[in-house]
Automatic annotation (TrEMBL):
Keywords: Cytoplasm. Residues 1-50 are annotated as: Disordered. Transmembrane segments: none annotated. Belongs to the Rho GDI family. It comes from Brassica oleracea var. oleracea. This is Rho GDP-dissociation inhibitor 1-like.
Length: 224
């Protein structure tokens, strides 16, 4: 989900006037279109060996102090209480917070199945406002590598926006992680008001999907 960046309005209108009123944001390195080199790299992915449970890796080398220190430097702080016997990481998206200077933070609990129970919009954004998305999530069992977020936004059946953002690599721990997205802004005007549908995903380097979140939101003249 993302909305028009005011810094780009003049440039966008001069290039293509039809783009006014669409959803957009500042480009980040992770959201730029892939180059031919990037596509070639994807075709040349390394064939890795079988994944080993993190607890097993630590247990077999626990008597080698130098090797254990090296692993701690490589893997970071790992809470062994949050490590399971199986090699697959577990990632649970807990909350979505919407921050805006115009109002108090909106904290939304993310359902495990990714489908909000409310029949109406999950939330409402004010037109012409700036906001930031903040995700809170927990990682257990094993290290998750290359966790990334992607979403697509539609209005009246037409795709108006899409984005991808790398969150990073995370070790298991009891305390939740928090990731703050780039600040975005909603467009303004009568034509952009209304309901939008969103499909978002959290996947890792192995393309394992931890959550597919489908919901609707509204853009209105004022906050509710």
């Amino acid at each position: 989900m993302g909305l028009k960046d005011e810094n780009n309005k003049a440039e966008e209108s001069s290039e293509d006037p039809k783009r006014q009123g669409t959803l957009s944001r500042k480009n980040s390195h992770s959201s730029l279109c892939p180059t031919e080199d990037d596509e070639e790299d994807e075709d040349k992915k390394l064939e890795l060996g079988p994944m080993i449970a993190l607890k097993e890796q630590f247990e077999k080398d626990k008597d080698d102090e130098s090797l254990m220190r090296w692993k701690e430097q490589l893997l970071g702080k790992v809470d062994l209480e949050e490590v399971g016997e199986t090699p697959d990481p577990v990632v649970k998206i807990l909350n979505l917070t919407i921050r805006s200077s115009d109002r108090e933070d909106m904290v939304l609990t993310v359902p495990e199945d990714g489908k909000p129970t409310s029949k109406g919009p999950w939330f409402t954004l004010k037109e012409g406002s700036k906001y930031t998305l903040v995700f809170t999530f927990r990682v257990t069992n094993n290290i998750v590598s290359g966790l990334r977020y992607s979403n697509s936004v539609w209005k009246t059946g037409i795709k108006v926006y899409g984005r991808k953002e790398m969150l990073g690599t995370f070790s298991p721990q009891a305390e939740p992680y928090t990731h703050v997205m780039f600040e975005e802004s909603t467009p303004s005007g009568m034509l952009v008001r209304g309901s939008y549908s969103v499909k978002s995903k959290f996947v890792d380097d192995d393309d394992k999907c931890y959550l597919e979140n489908n919901y609707t939101f509204d853009i209105r003249k004022n906050w509710l």
